[in-house]
TrEMBL record:
<feature type="transmembrane region" description="Helical">
    <location>
        <begin position="164"/>
        <end position="183"/>
    </location>
</feature>
<dbReference type="InterPro" id="IPR052187">
    <property type="entry name" value="MFSD1"/>
</dbReference>
<feature type="transmembrane region" description="Helical">
    <location>
        <begin position="7"/>
        <end position="23"/>
    </location>
</feature>
<keyword id="KW-1133">Transmembrane helix</keyword>
<feature type="domain" description="Major facilitator superfamily (MFS) profile">
    <location>
        <begin position="1"/>
        <end position="411"/>
    </location>
</feature>
<comment type="similarity">
    <text>Belongs to the major facilitator superfamily.</text>
</comment>
<keyword id="KW-0472">Membrane</keyword>
<feature type="transmembrane region" description="Helical">
    <location>
        <begin position="307"/>
        <end position="328"/>
    </location>
</feature>
<feature type="transmembrane region" description="Helical">
    <location>
        <begin position="216"/>
        <end position="237"/>
    </location>
</feature>
<keyword id="KW-0812">Transmembrane</keyword>
<dbReference type="GO" id="GO:0005886">
    <property type="term" value="C:plasma membrane"/>
</dbReference>
<feature type="transmembrane region" description="Helical">
    <location>
        <begin position="74"/>
        <end position="92"/>
    </location>
</feature>
<feature type="transmembrane region" description="Helical">
    <location>
        <begin position="249"/>
        <end position="270"/>
    </location>
</feature>
<feature type="transmembrane region" description="Helical">
    <location>
        <begin position="43"/>
        <end position="67"/>
    </location>
</feature>
<feature type="transmembrane region" description="Helical">
    <location>
        <begin position="340"/>
        <end position="365"/>
    </location>
</feature>
<feature type="transmembrane region" description="Helical">
    <location>
        <begin position="282"/>
        <end position="301"/>
    </location>
</feature>
<dbReference type="InterPro" id="IPR036259">
    <property type="entry name" value="MFS_trans_sf"/>
</dbReference>
Length: 450
């Protein structure tokens, strides 16, 4: 493999994903300006985010199939073209339908990027590096949020709506140029398979879906990703400020801690997964258990939770993002490279569907509690949040049951191929025994020298 070239190609893919995250998050930070520009209510504004996320989630499987058919270069370049067109449309939009059309294009272009970048990894890198590179792709991409929060917001305040959105559109022009000129679907000299026919594409989708490893990835992504997304994108800030009575500055500081912890913990997960590929689902279950435990502690705490407990909550929720990337490792390792895009697309639907559903259910519950008089005239009261946020336990519990059920099928398939996964207890006891043997040998050798 041409190593230097592989790094350039991966770097360009990561840049395209980082720009996609900037486009994805740019509207969220422009909420006040959007309210004024479109003369919109809060509900109308929330449709922008919902439309964008629905388009993103709905396109994951078609996009996965297309990546396997047309290759990552075409998809990453095409995605950047769509996002550029969407942001230009938004820059000039003066009504809600015109604005929605722009966000729809952004959602579609965004949907084409991440799956295509991950599809580059098994082509250009050896298997051992891939878990860490998968994590780094996810975490570097998240830095795109910072571009939205700092320079984009500054441009918006100083130069206005059009200049700010045209500037982020220009970032996508850069992505188009870089992706088209740097990214290659295959190393030179590697014989390329003929693109699959429509019938083969259908067969590939059915095979990727039927593979229990893909379903394990889908349910892992579904269960691990949503809690962090719901917290950082929607209900976290009102819960901390109105529910828990924190100053907005303290809540913002916790949100910053969230982003930093998510960034730093990614490489740890990547290395751990590369070293213990048979224990990936145990790590997923551990993250789910920690999420449920910390929410239980915060929501059951009599009165407002102490600050240290809120810090623990943020730390645990922050690892959900990198933790959810383990799901893509299931997709990659249980499917051949030729359908890796399709399997990744299937897995990526999980976390976005659960996040959308939970965000929606929490909103509906808060509104219902307000309308019933339970929250005593305060939409975001702590008691209402206790009930509304508890909906997460249904998703955590249901997702865990699905993971345990499918894991049994995955392990049965592996056993049929001669690869037995010993129970964690047995594996840990063996590890302890080996460590003790190594220590004894070292002690005997040093005793022999004296
Ligand atoms: N799990 C996320 C990525 C992530 C990494 N850290 C926090 N979030 C994911 O599924 N990403 C897909 C995408 O298109 O962003």
């Amino acid at each position: 493999m041409d190593t230097r070239r592989a790094w350039w190609i991966w770097g360009t893919g990561v840049f395209a994903y980082l720009v996609a995250i900037t486009q994805r998050t740019s509207f969220g930070v422009a909420g006040l300006h959007a309210t004024e520009r479109f003369d919109a209510t809060a509900a109308a504004l929330s449709t922008f985010t919902v439309v964008q996320l629905l388009v993103y989630a709905g396109l994951q499987i078609p996009v996965g199939l297309m990546v396997d058919r047309f290759g990552p270069r075409f998809m990453i370049t095409g995605g950047a073209v769509l996002m550029c067109a969407g942001q230009v449309q938004l820059a000039f939009a003066s009504s809600i339908p015109e604005g929605l059309a722009g966000r729809l294009l952004v959602g579609a272009g965004d949907a084409m990027t991440f799956v295509s970048v991950l599809r580059l990894l098994p082509i250009w890198f050896s298997g051992k590096r891939i878990p860490l590179l998968t994590q780094l792709t996810g975490q570097f991409g998240q830095l795109g949020q910072l571009l939205s929060v700092i320079p984009f917001v500054a441009l918006l305040n100083l130069q206005g709506w059009q200049t700010a959105f045209l500037s982020v559109a220009a970032l996508s022009v850069l992505s188009v140029i870089l992706a088209a000129s740097v990214i290659r679907n295959f190393p030179s000299g590697v014989e390329q398979d003929l693109p699959p026919t429509l019938r083969q594409t259908g067969v590939s989708l059915a095979q990727a879906w039927k593979q229990p490893g893909t379903q394990l990835g889908l349910w892992s992504h579904f269960t691990v990703q949503f809690a962090g997304n719901v917290f950082i994108l929607t209900w976290g800030f009102p819960f901390l400020v109105s529910g828990q009575g924190l100053e907005p500055a303290a809540a913002s500081a916790l949100m910053t801690v969230f982003v930093a912890v998510a960034l730093c913990s990614g490489p740890f997960f990547g290395r751990w997964v590369a070293r213990h590929p048979l224990r990936r689902s145990s790590l997923v279950l551990l993250i789910i258990a920690a999420t449920a435990a910390v929410w239980l502690a915060v929501l059951l705490y009599p009165g407002r939770a102490p600050f240290w407990l809120l810090v623990v909550l943020v730390l645990v929720l922050a690892v959900g993002g990198p933790g959810s990337m383990i799901a893509f490792d299931f997709a990659r390792t249980f499917n051949p490279v030729s359908r890796a895009g399709t399997a990744t697309g299937i897995v990526n639907v999980g976390g976005f569907v659960s996040a959308l559903l939970v965000m929606f259910c929490v909103g509906v519950a808060l509104d219902a509690l307000y309308a019933s008089g339970y929250s005593q005239g305060e939409l975001y009261s702590l008691d209402s949040f206790r009930i509304a946020l508890s909906v997460q336990f249904l998703f955590l519990g249901g997702g865990t049951a699905a993971i345990l059920f499918i894991r049994r099928r995955v392990r049965a398939n592996m056993a049929a191929q001669g690869q037995n996964v010993p129970p964690l207890r047995v594996a840990l006891a063996r590890q302890r025994r080996l460590r003790k043997q190594r220590r004894d040998r070292r002690r005997d050798a040093s005793a022999g020298r004296h």
